[in-house]
Fold Potassium transporter.
Amino acid sequence: MTNELFLTLPTDEIVWITVATLVVLFAIQRFGTDKIGYLFAPIILLWLLLIGGVGIYNTIKFDTRVLRAFNIKYVIDYFRRNKKDGWISLSGILLCFTGTEALFSDLGYFSIRSIQLSFCFGLVPSVLLAYIGQAAYLREHPEHIANTFYRSTPNVMFWPTFILAVAASIIGSQAMISCAFATISHLQTLDCFPRVKILHTSRQYSGQLYIPEVNFLLCVGACLVTIGFKTTVIIGEAHAICVVLVMIITTLLLTIVMLLVWKVSIWYVALFFVVFMSSESIYLSAVLYQFVHGEYVPVAISVVLTIVMIVWHYVHVKRYEFELEHTVPRDKVKKLLERHDIQRVPGVGLFYTDLVQGIPPVFPHLIEKIPSIHSVLIFVSIKHLPIPSVDKSERFIFRHVDKEEYKVFQCVARYGYRDPLEEAKDFVDALTENLQYYIRDVNFYATGGEQIFRTTSYASSIAESFASYDKHSGHAVYAEEMLTPAESFSEHAKQFSGRSKHFKQFQVQNMNMEKMEKIQQEQQAILREMENGVVYILGESDMVARPHSSLLNKIIVNYVYSFLRKNCRNGEKMLSIPRSQVLKVGISYEI
């Protein structure tokens, strides 16, 4: 009786209850999930045990003969008997295992082994038992096919089942939302997505992300789909095409991995590809038959996102190649620094650039418009490495751009994909501290004489690291970035400290008071300029298609990319820089 009263709720009321639940779910994303994450595993475990137990109960009570469905003969008879209708029903059968893929959205947070064990010994048996029990129930009550799950649940277990079902669906939705945040974060690191604000909601656990723009768009999209489709039947059909496309893409990528990475025999690869791709293609054909019934929605969204990613990455690569081809030569930098009309402004200027090797063309443009530079000028390049984290002691790499007395440096700040960007003040403090170490080390290793400096100079080795960054222009991950910190910065330091044992006594003798005082004066000069104020210089480069380029290139660069750039976050917001300390330099590139 309880089941009947609840299931008679009007569709419109259910829709608006769902919308309210969605709004609340997306509203609490800003607080993170680490505080309530401890409840996720117990709830899901209870849910799987519950549906598995109800499935066993229904199978025993109504009809154990449904177990004969595991016999392949009945599957063949089904398609012989129903022909085209049987083929069309495959799209509905596909919905039986939609949702199981949500488990793999947590791949970035759990180990592969834990997910394999959970999938094989928890998720699959419970879901399979639940569907077997529902099939047994429908053998006696075929008229209840629209609401089989709740109608097949015993009355005494209805409300516990309903509460756990809502909680499990919220947890599944949370997993997909977290997966969306993590995916956008990785895409932005690879320069394949417009700049959005990424917040880390937990200081204790890595991977707890929140992206306000993405959260808002997901909320609006989910609510519109719920209001527009109203029933789970159409929403499920729309979800089916996502699942089958994920299966096909996974098969294709795994085939490539088996061939190129694992070096598996071509015959085993061919067998794997034929078996899986043939079955998945049959499911895809059945799903596409009902494409106009709502399955076009996720495909349309995917196409839009793919276009955004391709356009953003394409223009980013072209801009990087342009800057790399038009880097300012060292002799020109020297002439700029030696010009008599150049005024040295007190303070420190942090000039942000994507280039690691060389000075960007926007720098002489700045000097031409405003003939002045700060007493300390640092070209900062922030790079993300394909490793989880970079130790703070190994985060910064420095080198002098030219003569030391000009106090012009280049700096590479390296972050792992789990390392959050610091606030502006914390970033400057860390940079200043590491710059002091660099000044000390460079002068220390240079005290052994000119010959020693050439063979063991810390600065020379760091310069080699800089030079390797831009070997492969136009890519989001560069040559030096593929090295871990232990293979780049730390290895150089170990080499020098090892060599220093042989001539340490000689260096100590040559490290006279005058030299030590010089190092201290240079460090104090940097600190004084930091106290005078820090100005963040950002190059605002407008991308314009060349006059004689193709029509497609003009549309991509002048319209699509321009629209995306105008509607994404500015550089100072991404870096959490105070607006009062920002100096923007505008320049146009023809690509």
